[in-house]
Amino acid sequence: xxxxxxxxxxxxxxxxxxxxxxxxxxxxxxxxxxxxxxxxxxxxxxxxxxxxxxxxxxxxxxxxxxxxxxxxxxxxxxxxxxxxxxxxxxxxxxxxxxxxxxxxxxxxxxxxxxxxxxxxxxxxxxxxxxxxxxxxxxxxxxxxxxxxxxxxxxxxxxxxxxxxxxxxxxxxxxxxxxxxxxxxxxxxxxxxxxxxxxxxxxxxxxxxxxxxxxxxxxxxxxxxxxxxxxxxxxxxxxxxxxxxxxxxxxxxxxxxxxxxxxxxxxxxxxxxxxxxxxxxxxxxxxxxxx
Length: 290
Fold this sequence. Notes:
Distance between the termini: 33 Å
Mean pLDDT: 89
Largest sheet: 14 strands, mixed
Order of helices and strands: EEEEEEEEEEEEEEEHEHEE
Number of strands: 18
């Protein structure tokens, strides 16, 4: 969920002479910046293997994959229950196999601890509740304006009653993340956390948002919708990441590193780890298009 690195220098300058019909591209010789360490660490309430990735971002123009950090000690602690889970490095990531049980418990607070290069880093998050998916439906539609002909899946779900809840919605097609849909973030089934939509059905942008109008589904496709219940802090982090990933065009803003929640515990420590440690509760529903 994190971009490799914020651009600190302009990489390409487009120069257009007045009334000219061509554009000249100038490649600048950029200075090499330090590789930024970051984590991709999401703990769920599901059984089985939990995975934490610890990487170093590469330069913006570098096409190489991020470098894996393999010499850290990583532990997740259930602060509420007083249990610790040591993660072991293998196959490019840090893993803990919970077997048929799970690390994550709704209502508990969790702490990520990383020891690396002689320094200690910590982050905490609360594992929040989720809701229930009512149903997924599919309907064949003819071409309508910019929407192409095909099968359109809709998500029917109500917000949980009694508090402001934050949701992270992901859509999968035939076992893979559907990148034509994109990530959706919702507060109480809407875009606002003012509590006015508490307990109501998710509004149409989320109901219809699991189907891209330019890439509708075909008969036989298997569509899965995964809803993750997240904390307010994780929700706001994901919002900022989403804004950075879609930050372009005439009104694009200067890109910046999204704030992380990992804190260096050493008063004299100079290293900063980017990324995010979050906990999520998960529910899902699957629909075969027929």
